[in-house]
Here is the input.
Amino acid sequence: MAGVGEIHLRRDETPVLSVRNLVVQHRLRRRSFVEAVSGVSFDVLHGETLALVGESGSGKSSTARAVIQLPPPTGGEVALFGRELQGVSPEELRQLRRKLQIIVQDPVGALNPLKRVRQLAAEGLEVWSDRDPEKVDAMLTAVGLDPEIYAARRRRELSGGQCQRLCIARALLIGPEMLICDEPVSALDVSIQAQIVELLRELQGSMGLSMLFISHDLRIVKSIASRVLVLYMGRVCEVGDADALYSSPTHPYTKLLIEAVEGGAIEADPGEIPSALEPPSGCRFRTRCPAADARCVAEVPQLRQVGDDHFVACHHFPDEAR
Ligand code: SF4
Here is the structure.
């Protein structure tokens, strides 16, 4: 029998990244822990961008870290490029990780302040012959950093957006097949965010990359994601084709996120996420959901299909006899 999160998986091709029933627990004290991710499953197919969306504490970043085995998940399976990661040797894991590069939230902190732009861009290249200045400069140009102007600069002479462009160039020079972008624009000025997202979208398309794009902001995700997976307190609420999810959001939590960015009337309680130490029974969203009832307290909602490539974990939406 399919468990939570299993039924929406695509089976028509080998995914670039396949995650099954992922569980991530963080140990607090000797005998206590919080479960940051509870049975999450998804695939990322070749050339697509899957966005993981949710508020702080939803489990997005814990999921991303578990994918790269830093640290390995508490439970579940992760397969990268068709290779199951559990039990893989450190050397093979290192080789696999080169095909999967990460763009982090803090580009400034990711750059050595003593090095110059051209050195920083080439930092990840292990083979010296690959550090061909022409190749490096071509990538700097591709991300919008004219080498004639920027190659000799240091970090302090770049803006936050330029630092992120440099981090993107450094990651792409390694030749990845997939990028994990973990809140890549949340530390940047709003005016710069759209430019960086557009750059990532263009590069993803031209280089045929697959992408896992993590964000708390559905507005940012809208222009780049082909599919969206909404997480709340470590569980999948809704997953589907981005257009379907934006045009017909179904889970009350997805509606809340969309209403929050569009400034419409908010039906659900926009208040706090409950403590992860004592997650609500049944549906974890029930303490904020205006439609919660006794069934929501007692039963964990399972994902069910509501449209082509559109799945929702809710007892009552779309309408189901109560
Ligand atoms: S299962 Fe119940 S509490 Fe959870 S989102 Fe649906 S209606 Fe709300």
